[in-house]
Amino acid sequence: MLYEDLGQKQAIEQLVARFYERVYADHLLRPLFPSDRRQVEQAQTRFLIQLTGGPKQYESYDERMNLAMIHRLLPITEVHAIRWIELMTMTIEETISDSEAATRLIERLRIGALNVLRICDAHQNR
């Protein structure tokens, strides 16, 4: 299972912390994120744990707040999605020691980022 191959919760928390150091220092992505970085990191950690096959994280949360609902009103463009993927890829390659697991995670997140972009495009073009 990918969750175990990545190093479980501790590795995901380290990945997320390093990733958001980059995001919050990035001139392109920073304006898309709220000032409460801690809350963003917690949500991303829960998401990645569940995405990779770890314990369910969202049972006590509002199911209407899925990935599409969270991002649909943000002004995300292709440039933002590409930059997000670039920063995430760099961070995964630096923090995950199992290169095969890292590659699998990058591919899952690349697909997810492109899906979010399609959702945002569809919503903005209404």
From TrEMBL:
GO molecular-function terms, A-Z: heme binding; metal ion binding; oxygen binding; oxygen carrier activity
Q: Which domain of life is it from?
A: Bacteria
Sorted keywords for this record are: Heme, Iron, Metal-binding, Transport
UniProt keyword annotation of Heme present: yes
Cite a single Pfam family from the UniProt record. Answer: Bac_globin
Known InterPro entries for this protein? GlbO/GLB3-like, Globin-like_sf, Globin/Proto, Hemoglobin_trunc
Iron: is it a keyword of this entry?
A: yes
Q: What's the family?
A: Belongs to the truncated hemoglobin family. Group II subfamily.
Protein name in the entry:
Globin
Q: What does the record give as the organism's lineage?
A: Bacteria, Bacillati, Bacillota, Bacilli, Bacillales
